[in-house]
Amino acid sequence: MASTTLSVSSPSISGSTTPCLPNTTTTVAYFKPHTRTFSTLLLGKSLSLYRTSRIRPIGAKISSNGITCQASSSVLPSALLFDCDGVLVDTEKDGHRISFNETFDEKELGVTWDVDLYGELLKIGGGKERMTAYFNKVGWPEKAPKNEDERKAFIAGLHKRKTDLFMALIEKQLLPLRPGVAKLIDQALAKGVKVAVCSTSNEKAVSAIVSCLLGPQRAEQIKIFAGDVVPRKKPDPAIYILAANTLGVDPSSCVVVEDSAIGLAAAKSAGMKCIVTKSGYTAEEDFVNADAVFDCIGDPPEERFDLAFCGSLLEKQYVS
């Protein structure tokens, strides 16, 4: 199926501590048409997109940095499910990676994960799984045990220390929320939409992000599914299926916000709608199966989408 992609240059946002992928050409909105010219029911409105050199959805708001998808819809998701790392906070490069390297240094393992290497390792879901795959490929450190069961305990110990270091970093609030995250969560909670965070990261680390950066009032209303709560991690859909079952909602009524190809695959395999907000490490990944792709959620006046847009994805999207 052909795709229509809306791309713009995203400048830095004045006054924002975390601009939406600054100074890069990024995909702001991405839809999958059946034909060259088509209409789609978005937010209760009929919009048209045309495959031309200047693509503009009729009725969409055009800001200096791109297209804001706005309108009204009577349909709301039963649940709004967020990935954590890269969606709530862009934690990977200057958060998790730094904490892994500090752990390796403390244990004198002689291992350092640079920015590019860590980007490749992110294709493996889960920190323990990531370390195990890396050591299996390049060789285990001299200080590592030889027995497989002892190696599992060794990896678990490394991961526990890494999580402690990461949580200390989060508690200092050195990594801010991505633009629009708090806004979208507030919109959902105000409308009675269930909100959850579904992550392959350690549950303590995810809880620290939610409580420290979103605040205790929001945190007590957000369900967290993380770490080893399921036996198989993304791209397996297990964590999203568990979330839907626990929340008592139909997967087809859920909207997921993800930032990676493996997260997108997990959400779609669970039968859910998925919006991708690209992050620093995932900007060049293939998101052709996403229901929509943006560079961030965004706060006004740089807002990209809102809760009503999420609800619109549950309606019949394409009409000829």
Keywords:
single chain; 320 residues; alpha/beta; six-stranded parallel beta sheet; three-stranded antiparallel beta sheet; 13 strands; disordered N terminus
Write up this protein.
By secondary structure, the chain is an alpha/beta fold. Helices cover 34% and strands 20% of the residues. The protein is built from 10 helices and 13 strands. It has helices at 92-106, 115-121, 127-138, 148-171, 181-190, 203-214, 216-219, 238-247, 261-269, 307-312; strands at 4-10, 24-31, 37-42, 45-50, 61-63, 66-68, 79-82, 194-199, 222-226, 254-258, 273-277, 292-294, 318-319. Strands 9-8-7-10-11-12 form a 6-stranded parallel β-sheet, with helices on both faces. It has a 3-stranded antiparallel β-sheet with strand order 4-3-13, with no helix packed on it. Helix 1 (92-106) crosses helix 4 (148-171), helix 3 (127-138) packs across helix 4 and helix 4 (148-171) packs parallel to helix 6 (203-214).
Provide a concise account of the structure shown:
The chain has 320 residues and is an alpha/beta fold. The protein is 34% helix and 20% strand.
Tell me the layout of helices and strands:
Blueprint: E1 4-10, E2 24-31, E3 37-42, E4 45-50, E5 61-63, E6 66-68, E7 79-82, H1 92-106, H2 115-121, H3 127-138, H4 148-171, H5 181-190, E8 194-199, H6 203-214, H7 216-219, E9 222-226, H8 238-247, E10 254-258, H9 261-269, E11 273-277, E12 292-294, H10 307-312, E13 318-319
Parallel strand pairs: 7-8, 7-10, 8-9, 10-11, 11-12
Antiparallel strand pairs: 1-2, 3-4, 3-13, 5-6
